[in-house]
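Milestone M4 deliverable, item 7.
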Amino acid sequence: MIYLDYQATTPLAPEAREAMLRWLGGPDSDTFGNPHSPHRMGRMAAAAVEAARENVAALFPPGGRVIFTSGATEALNLAIRGARYGPIAASTIEHAAVRDTARWLGTDTDLPVGPDGVIDPQVPIPVGTQMVAVMQVNNEIGTIQPVDAIAARTRANDTWLLVDAVQGAGRIAPPHGADLVAISAHKLHGPKGIGALWVRDGIELAPLILGGGQEQGLRSGTLSPALIAGFGAAAALAAARMAEDAAHVETLWNRARDLFDGWLLNGSADQRWRGNLNIRKPGLDVARLMSDCRTIMFSAGSACASGSGRPSHVLKAIGLTDREARSSIRLGFGRYTTAEEIETAAAAINAAARSQGL
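Output delivered:
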């Protein structure tokens, strides 16, 4: 099988797996302690958690603290609901974790993006808005948003800026000027089930989960040293390999663009993370295409919304019709993808499209 769905999840880095194994701890080990216990085994586990926290914190700007969560969805909920804030304005291409939570509060406003999938840094923000949510890299079309420019505006207006950096963390420079930033380990070659919310110093949130007050009073419940150790190892590796990974992805992108000549690109080709290729062919039956290419793992959109049956809200937001949105596919590649895999996948996908007369 060929895996081209890096926006949905990434392969676990061997270094992350190795870091996790120690803290899974069997009965004959001394590494299964509860990190909140005061005895030696507990302190050992707590030290592993804090070492990993430092590695994860290095993915963010200075001047904040890292709160471990179960993933980015929980982190985004904690940021929005924990703020107990007023009106929220979010871009029309935000993840459902932002859009649905903002709607639940009943005070949301949509900020439009252009046909290129990029928000205008000077987009009008309604008077009275108290939180703005703009993602760093879109999960469906890969467009990079001008979050630093928007941060300058929110700072000037004493408005909080929430950034979903799930697709950008460990790949591009962190967003500066944000107040709250959410990331997920499994999108940067770490394990599933662990994420983080970075909270700028001076920002106070209310907890979503009550109980023992673990995790700085914001998330009660026992932390998993194994998941956190894997997250920390993956974060350190991503930081060390950022330039190398980006160069590799650029090479794969250029090859893929040649191989998919004749397909239409969704979103900007320039202001984009190159590991995301979202393309379409008019009249393409994507369900049939995916059936014909069973050994290639790619997507027709966000994994989180794959069961909804609705056309992508992101593709609709950039002006595509329902038919155009439903004729689109997303190919995601990264650190462990080879050029040969791109070539084999492209040959199969193009052949399947030609079998539909396209």
